[in-house]
Write the structure tokens for this entry.
Amino acid sequence: MADVIYTRLIGARIRSQLAYRGSFAIDFVSQVMAQSYELIVILVLFGQVTALGGFSRDEVLLMYAFAGAAFGVADLFAGQLDNLPTYIRTGNFDVLLMRPLGTLPQIMCSDIRLRRIGRITGALAVMAYALSHVAVDWSPAKILLTVATPVAGAVIYGSVWVVACSICFWIVEGREFANAVTYGSNAFTSYPINVYARPLRWLMAFVVPGAFVAYYPSLALLGKQDPLGLPGWVGWTSPLVAVLAATAAGLVWRFAVRHYRGTGS
Amino acid sequence: MIEVRELRREFKVATSKGLRRNYKTVTAVDGVTFDVGAGEAVGYVGPNGAGKSTTIKMLTGILVPTSGHLLVDGVDPAKQRRDLAKRIGVVFGQRSQLWWDLPLKDSFDLLRSIYRVSHEDYRRRLDECVELLGLQELLITPVRQLSLGQRMRGEITAALLHAPELLVLDEPTIGLDLESKERLREFLADINTRRGTTLLLTTHDLDDIERLCPRLMVIDHGRVLADGPLDELRAEVTPERELVIDLREPGPAPDVPGVTAVRSEANGLRHHLTFRRAEMTAAQLITQVVRQVEVHDLAVVEPEIDDVIRKLYQRQVEQDAHR
């Protein structure tokens, strides 16, 4: 029953966006373009070198595509958290609190950005290309892994988004920080993590579990050893990491809303 | 319906001094106690920053009290926010709970799902509101194209679709033109008397109180200064009323025992007379005045609600000083 409500809320947002068809089309195209700029960077890079951290161009493209698809889906649902400062400042967060629903799902359903589908489409196209050019020893489990990776990745990104945006309950203009974490981690996860310096690698791989979005699942899919020495099964744990991340994000959000209502510190 | 005991709410406010940041505690609501029975209509008034909105936010479960006891329709708003949301209706005059880009009807449909109202109940309640508030033509209009008055009628309908026993309204008539205000008041009075819906509303408009609320609560500096019928409060704190008369010909003010001519204007064409409520009625005074002078027009001026509140506040300060 509850899910029906959220489906309806999402449906309502989609209808409101179709009220502005022109801007939808422009946004859609600009999203595809934004996604391809990053692609061009990778292609130019591989015009100069043949491998990056021990990975070929098409292998890097696979990671880039996994990360892009996951980020696109997360953005579709969690991107509207960018509006949280506005909700808080205008008092519209109070309106969410006076309804018999959770605040987080209400915000997530408040503005499905359909134009983000442009980003997802681009990422899926690159994924199709990369998968047909890298050597994968296909098995049913690996097919499942390929499908599960963008989904788990989206949940991980979404959780990072929720945690980062929760800061807005303390510092209303904390959005810049939140954006640095969310958009920053997207840029990070598009490349093999062994090319980064160790502190950054640790931060972005395990504190913000970005390495589980694309890097480790790609290793498992390609049947490659982790240059950093983690065992091969790590690549299969992304869904578990996603569940943990989502749980943590839910707790942080609850804590933040409690602070807003005044029971917190 | 509402039970409030020694309700307090403090806020920490940052005070910057150079680079150092200090926090001081501000008490927005300071030991408020009152009861509202089922079916009552209560006006909750006070100057800006008096603690009205903070009280409303605690009653509706948005804010959690610092201390004190609070029960709304048998539910603790702080702990059972969602439970409470299903039982009460809330209208904020300055925010909207409607979907901006969608037709009004779509917002109502969504709220039906959110509050899990059955199709029959929904249709019946919506039809009633649509008829009484004249919303027929507006149902297919996107909310963003509605005027403020039209939107407020939509907001009130939205708050009533789940048939709450208690309707809380925060400045429902703010910014509305006279006609819209009157229409809204009529509707609210109707659901209060006919359906028995309990009303609690904050307002700056004395007419709202006069039309709607047999009971008035005045709050200032986070404390309830007075609680009772408006007429009683007015009589109690402002014993003097004023009669303004316009004469046909300029002349001196009429001389009536117990009446003070406080001021004259327009070279003696207009006079302001004050008289004590307890000593005579306006009708008695007018009878005496027209015997003495030829009156062109007259008006009885009641003290403004702001005056009443200011007097109440002064009285409170004096009482505190005596203790």
